[in-house]
């Protein structure tokens, strides 16, 4: 069974009676399990729940009775920030979302697809009695569960209790990918912290009456952050013992092997002065020939694995001018990372690929999700969910949200960034993975990454392109020659792509 869908006209979507990947639906952004439609020509992309794929294109809805509503995808406006902000916000729930919506263009009225199908009565885990929504007329209220305002409450007449429809959907217990233990719905006042709790999923203060909390680890999360499709791990909580080991998933031997014969085979060894065995010749998946351990290094030589400057000792194939860091040769075949819900597999690709985290073209070693077919630069995956960086005095934490966050260094906007819980400093993956030192062509000295102007002259220029520099932007500097330069001038257009020689 096939369906020609309005969001993807190029190919028909093919019906799958029992989808098990859990990839997010293009319509509602919830994980897809069970009946679905997806594009086989595009390797299973453009996936939808059956119900989302079969939504009517037009709708007469009681929340906006004067005009018909038209189904549309908010990603139509992904390159127009003003329009995206306007049309991503639902007039019923008041929240922003990337899910499909119904819109009246005459009145700028917008309703998310999930809000358009709300039931008149519901049972919920967060309240003992049945909740009722008697009319579709929008009315201002304050939610008794989260403390925030809203437009369309579910009410309990017995208790004079009003709640958002989204809050009413909160389970008492859930599991998120980035924490080992279940999180429990907890009143914020019961969380014993000196200041407002920090949500460790978005790295912002929790200012709602309830939150999700693990008392064993002092792990807190916003209600809505925990319920985002890329954070919520839909697992059988009855089978998940709360007494499980606090050992991190990343320590799982099956997923975090330090050596794998499919990645690297040791061909020759020697014994070092301290008695340890040293591999002097290896066969690595990244290259067709054996690689020999090397100490000698020339300036501006890059690793073919991570495409960063080579440091001694390293492995090389001299005839092919192929170089590989010793650390890159030991990368595990399978790795879990909090940035992605599935295990990632190490591969090598000479052709350029696009990293979905730092939004750069790369080549060399990469981690790839074989379910979602996402590619990740190894430099991004080698960063953990906490980061100490020379550019900032406080520790930074991985923040993943449904809205773009502006990098304090380069002003680009990304969904996944590193964020400071103390002062709202934001660093995207592109800036977080910039080399601290690098070389430029035949310049005899290395350049160092700098975060503040080199002097207080008030005039700042790049000595490569001779154009003016923004003093708020990071730059590279050779202290030996007093030689400042734009970081793009030093690194080039695609610094994570190493061209064949």
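^ Assign residues to that structure.
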């Amino acid at each position: 069974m096939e369906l020609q869908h309005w969001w993807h006209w190029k190919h028909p979507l093919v019906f799958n009676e029992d989808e098990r990947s859990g990839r997010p639906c293009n319509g509602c952004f919830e994980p897809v399990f069970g009946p679905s439609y997806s594009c086989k020509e595009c390797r299973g992309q453009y996936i939808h729940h059956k119900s989302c794929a079969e939504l009517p294109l037009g709708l007469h809805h009681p929340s906006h009775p004067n005009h018909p509503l038209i189904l549309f995808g908010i990603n139509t406006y992904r390159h127009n920030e003003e329009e995206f902000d306007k049309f991503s916000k639902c007039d019923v729930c008041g929240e922003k979302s990337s899910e499909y919506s119904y819109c009246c263009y005459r009145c700028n009225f917008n309703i998310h697809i999930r809000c358009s199908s709300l039931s008149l009565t519901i049972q919920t885990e967060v309240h003992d009695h049945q909740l009722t929504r008697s009319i579709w007329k929008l009315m201002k209220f304050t939610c008794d569960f989260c403390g925030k305002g809203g437009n369309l409450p579910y009410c309990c007449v017995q208790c004079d209790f009003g709640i958002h429809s989204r809050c009413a959907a909160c389970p008492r217990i859930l599991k998120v990918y980035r924490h080992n233990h279940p999180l429990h719905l907890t009143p914020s006042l019961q969380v014993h912290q000196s200041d407002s709790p920090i949500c460790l999923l978005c790295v912002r203060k929790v200012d709602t009456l309830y939150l999700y909390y693990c008392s064993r680890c002092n792990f807190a999360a916003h209600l809505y952050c925990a319920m985002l499709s890329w954070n919520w791990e839909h697992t059988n909580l009855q089978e998940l013992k709360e007494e499980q080991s606090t050992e991190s998933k990343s320590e799982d031997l099956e997923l975090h092997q330090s050596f794998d014969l499919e990645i690297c085979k040791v061909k020759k060894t020697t014994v070092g002065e301290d008695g340890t065995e040293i591999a002097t010749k290896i066969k690595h998946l990244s290259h067709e020939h054996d690689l020999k351990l090397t100490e000698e290094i020339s300036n501006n030589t890059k690793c073919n694995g991570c495409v960063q400057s080579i440091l001694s000792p390293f492995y090389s194939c001299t005839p092919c001018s192929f170089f590989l860091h010793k650390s890159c040769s030991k990368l595990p075949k399978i790795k879990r990372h909090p940035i992605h819900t599935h295990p990632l597999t190490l591969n090598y690709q000479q052709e350029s690929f696009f990293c979905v985290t730092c939004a750069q073209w790369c080549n060399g070693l990469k981690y790839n999700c074989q379910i979602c077919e996402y590619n990740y630069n190894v430099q991004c995956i080698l960063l953990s969910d906490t980061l100490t960086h020379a550019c900032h005095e406080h520790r930074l934490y991985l923040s993943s949200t449904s809205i773009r966050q502006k990098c304090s260094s380069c002003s680009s906007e990304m969904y996944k960034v590193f964020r400071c819980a103390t002062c709202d400093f934001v660093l995207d993956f592109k800036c977080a993975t910039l080399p601290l030192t690098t070389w430029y062509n035949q310049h005899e000295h290395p350049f160092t990454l700098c975060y503040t102007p080199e002097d207080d002259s008030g005039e700042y220029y790049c000595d490569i392109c001779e154009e003016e520099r923004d003093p708020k932007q990071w730059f590279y500097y050779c202290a030996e020659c007093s030689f400042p330069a734009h970081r793009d001038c030093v690194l080039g257009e695609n610094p994570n792509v190493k061209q064949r020689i």
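The chain is about 10% helix and 35% strand.
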